[in-house]
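Recall from the previous lesson that a structure prediction takes nothing but the amino acid sequence as input. Here we apply that procedure to 50S ribosomal protein L40e from candidate division CPR3 bacterium. The sequence below is the only information supplied.
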Amino acid sequence: MFLVKKIFPEAMERLFNRVYVCRKCKHKIRADYTKVRAGKVKCRYCGSKVLRPKRKEKKA
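The prediction returns the following tokens.
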């Protein structure tokens, strides 16, 4: 039996709000949504501009 802990709103915001993942090298980057959509943000590790939002963790 799995017990799922409820994550505090502050923790949810810190973990998932404005956090993007590089599709090429899988590094996490915190940036504004408008800049990511405009292509102004690039990965600081590999230089790619292809980013996706960090996926929320699935609950059991």
